Amino acid sequence: MPLSRSRPNLLRIMNTSAFLPFAAILFLTAAGCERRSPEVAEKLAELERENAAAAGRQRELEHELEDQKVAAERDAIERERLRLAEDRAVLEREQGEAAAAESEEIRRREGALAKRESSIERTQAELLEKQEDLRDQQVQLSERDRTLAGREALAFEVQEQTEPVADYGMFYDSLGSYGSWFDTEDYGYVWQPAVVRDADWRPYSRGRWACSDRGWLWISDEPFGWATYHYGRWTLLRGRGWIWVPGSEWAPSWVSWRENADHIGWAPLPPETLAYRGHAWDSTVDVQFRISPACFTFVEIGYFGGPLAGRCLPVSRNGFFFEGTTNITYIHIERNQVICGGPGYQKISDRIRKPLPFYRLEVDSRPRLSRDRLGLRPHIKGDRLVVSAPNIDSARNGSLKPKRVSGRIEETTVERQGTLSREISDSYRRSREESRERAGLPPVAARTEEKPRQQKVNDAPVVERRQDREQPRSEIQPQRNPEPLPQDRKRQVERTREEPQPQRVAPTNPVRREQLDTEVNHQRQEQPRQAEEALSLQQQEEQARQQRQQEKQEREAEQARDQERTQRREQEQDRERQQRHEEQSQQEERQRENHRQRQQQEDTDRQQEQARQRQQEENKQQQRQDESRQNKEKEQDEMSKKNR
Questions:
Q1: Which residues, other chains included, contact 11 with Cβ-Cβ below 8 Å and sequence gap of 6+?
Q2: Do the beta carbons of residue 364 and residue 389 sit within 8 Å?
Q3: How far is residue 420 from each of residues 10, 13, 273, 416, measured CA to CA in Å?
Q4: So what's the pLDDT on residue 1?
Q5: Residue 179, SS3 per DSSP
Q6: What sign does the CA torsion over 231, 232, 233, 236 have?
Q7: What are phi and psi of 339, to 5 degrees?
Q8: Closest by Cα among 232, 300, 315, 294 to 263
Q9: Residue 464 CA to chain centroid, in angstroms?
């Protein structure tokens, strides 16, 4: 019995002695693995970072490629729009069956163009959704920067001032593919895009706003946006629509801002602000330049920061929104750079419950000025937004003109809320004179001072206009002894006929008497001719007056037809926009419902999975308990057997 009890203890000691070397080997191996694990973990982490960076670059390249495709399609759409406008202008001068067939073809092309626009809008929306995946690469702002962003400038790199690398010829050449150039007396050469025929179109309405370290920057979807929304100014002409006036100073945007708790609005600054280069503008800019409510674009604050095509509110409601909003414009200059202050970044982010994209601007002042103007569009590189801003402040700008000018706009009646002050008008006129002087051209002061005179000429008889045309083009000097008007000359001739002629004393010299007789005969012959000339001039003036009246009536009738067509287009577009809004709302509601159902299904599946896991744990625990009980019972049986 003692020997049998000592055998298990001996075997236990032998097993323990054999296990010690094996345990030591395992311990040393584990220790060696622990010493190598930090190095391996570091290498693995580095490989993961490189893999993530490569994947991020791949996504950026794919995004850039898709963005280039979208830009090329938009460029083709705008070129096709210009061709349609030119074909329609030709069609309006034709008649007959051929014109009707051509009109049907133009309508078909317009329908195809609208479908292409809708398709590219969907592609653009999908592209922006993909861009949301790259948000982790964007700038992370501190609390202080979030408060200042949108109003003040954050820390940015100062760009060195360069010499001009281009001139207005850059605008004249590239913009002619998307619209028409016109000559005006007040603004010089101006450009009007072909898309202006769309009653729903306004400047700064097809694209999106992005907050940057220099304020709010407009990222346009249009191929001409690199020029028209960062240089120059826009103005709204009555009966003509929006036109763009070139300028040489670059900025992230040139707009006046308004807001309230639910809406944000902006309007392009007028061309008269071009006379104040390097000037700051505050909340009084609307009053100073009489900016009309019709020039504003308003959106609901929830849509701000995203694509704005189809989101802008109707112009017919601008008066209501204008009265209910406050001007918050804060354009100022820091280190020779224009800062476009407007709505507060943090305020809008808090209101829409998500942070808006924020970018550091990388301004390229020496871009490659190739024939491909699409390369001048802004493009995103990680947390930076690269923009092209070549210096085009050339002395030659005043002497250049477009290769193709579609016509001249005689009347430039600007939509304003009142009359512009004389001081601002004179400042803009002087700035144009200085531009012409820099280019070596004669000043435009003569033409500007001639305008009041021209108004008088239009109301005066033909004789006075003929005299003005005979004078040189320079400033018209007032005559010291002006020629009498035709009606006065006629009365003078009749009075001369009626009044008795004074008796002349015959001179004693026969030669002198003969001279006097000749003069008298000449005067008698001249009197009927002068009377005929006066009557002829009267008839000419009457014909000219009737012709002017007829032209005025035709213009008024054409304007009425244009207004009627514009109203019909606006009504149709309002209906379409309302229908799209309803469809979008229904689609969003369906998406929310589907999301809610998926969420409920996921919650249900998760609860069922948790219940299954709990049941499995309980089964395992019960199994372990049964096994433990069985083991105990076996041990008790063995002990009882041994005891027996």
A1: none
A2: yes
A3: 114, 110, 12, 8
A4: 42
A5: strand
A6: negative
A7: -110, 120
A8: 300
A9: 47
8 A C-beta contact, residue 416 and residue 236: no
Two tokens, residue 6:
């000592």
Identify the three-state secondary structure at position 235: strand
- DSSP secondary structure string for all residues of 489-534: HHHHHHHHHHSPPPPPPPPS-HHHHHHHHHHHHHHHHHHHHHHHHH
Six-digit token pair at 37?
């694990």
Look up residue 69 and give its two tokens: 């495709």
Q: How many CA atoms lie within 13 A of 541 on its CB side?
A: 19
The label of the residue with tokens 């409920």 reads 600
- The domain spans of the chain are 15-137, 149-440, 441-471
- Specify the pairing of strand 384-388 against strand 358-364: parallel
DSSP 371-435: S-GGGGS-EEETTEEEEE------TTGGG---S---EEE----B-BSS---HHHHHHHHHHHHHH
- pLDDT tens, residue by residue, 68-124: 676 677 677 777 777 777 777 766 666 555 555 666 676 777 777 777 776 766 676
* SS3 call for 461: coil
